[in-house]
Amino acid sequence: MELWLATGNRSKLIEFKTLLPSFEIHTQSELSVFSPPPENGKTFEENARIKARSLKAVKTGVWVIGEDSGLEVEGLGNLPGIHSARYAGPKAIDPENVAKLLKMLGLKSANNRKAKFQCYMVIYSPDGRESVINGTVEGSISTKPIGTDGFGYDPVFIPDGETKTFAELGLTRKNQISHRAQAIRKLIEIIN
């Protein structure tokens, strides 16, 4: 079955392909007529809807998915939140975002390291029906980056019930318990 994913994030695309091996997954980058919309929503759900609607406008009659996700740290007032990908600046790379997160935690709330990863998806069926799903994984932030697997904040996020970061646990374990894995299981239910 064909799915179109509204993302320019290669790491997310790899996760989707890993978690949905029997689906044919395409992205907006395959379309010559598509311009990514500004992600100016106030929530993950709003940003996911902006992405999905934008892609649906040029790709009809197929399953279209807009996804937005990020890290919320309690001690930072739930930042970086919807700004997770650009926390250290509009062109920041993952290590820069992680470094800023650890610095801000050290300055503001070194004792409260509770965090959660959120993932929201807005899905449009081939006939245009909208569904909204989410996945959440609770955890805490380590004091330094550890591990080499994954992307984003994976080297500093320790999911509840584990003693290692997502980046240490490896992709197989992460893809069993992550926020995106939870949302994708709900996506499969909707498609079926």
In short:
This protein is of the alpha/beta class and 192 residues long.
The number of helical elements comes to 6
Number of folding domains?
A: 1
Name of the level-1 CATH class: Alpha Beta
How many angstroms does the end-to-end distance come to? 11 Å
Poorly predicted regions are none
Fold-level CATH name: Maf protein
Task: Specify Rg, calculated over alpha carbons.
Answer: 16 Å
What do these coordinates show?
The radius of gyration is 16 Å and the shape is globular. The chain has helices at 10-19, 44-56, 94-108, 166-169, 171-177, 179-191; strands spanning 2-6, 24-27, 63-73, 79-80, 114-124, 130-141, 157-159. It is α/β, with parallel strands linked by helices. Helix 1 links the parallel strand 1 and strand 2. Strands 1, 2, 3, 4, 5, 6 and 7 form a seven-stranded mixed beta sheet that branches. The chain has one domain: Maf protein.
Write the layout of secondary structure elements.
Blueprint lengths: L1 E5 L3 H10 L4 E4 L16 H13 L6 E11 L5 E2 L13 H15 L5 E11 L5 E12 L15 E3 L6 H4 L1 H7 L1 H13 L1
Parallel strand pairs: 1-2, 1-3
Antiparallel strand pairs: 3-4, 3-5, 5-6, 6-7
